[in-house]
Amino acid sequence: MQRNKRGMGYVGYCICPKCGDKILHQAGKLCKGDNCRKCGGKMVREGSYHHHLIEEKKKALNYN
């Protein structure tokens, strides 16, 4: 994966934390600026800090 000084690079996906839908990330555009085409939720960058937080929260809720 290509990375630049400011972020995660231009290769990767934007993912919806609500339904799991993925779209190809567009270089120079933040994922959070897009809404999911299926459920309307805010997209996050797959593998990002926020994506990891969401996944950890889902795991914690499933264990209870």
Description:
There is one protein chain. By secondary structure, this protein is α+β, with helices and mostly antiparallel strands. The chain has one domain (about 15-64). It has one helix and three strands. It has a three-stranded antiparallel sheet with strand order 2-1-3, with no helix packed on it. A hairpin with a 6-residue loop joins strand 1 and strand 2 (about 20-25). The longest helix has 15 residues, at about 50-64. It is globular, with a radius of gyration of 12 Å. The chain starts with 12 loop residues before the first strand and ends with a helix. The relative contact order is 0.20. Mean pLDDT is about 85; it is low at about 1-5.
List the helices and strands and how they pair.
Layout: E1 13-15, E2 22-24, E3 44-45, H1 49-63
Antiparallel strand pairs: 1-2, 1-3
Q: Can you give me a brief rundown of this structure?
A:
With 64 residues, the protein is α+β, with helices and mostly antiparallel strands.
The poorly predicted ranges are 1-5
Overall 3D shape: globular
Sheet with the most strands, sense and barrel status? 3 strands, antiparallel
List the total number of helices. 1
- Average pLDDT, all residues: 86
State the end-to-end distance. Answer: 36 Å
Q: Structural class, judged by helices and strands?
A: alpha+beta
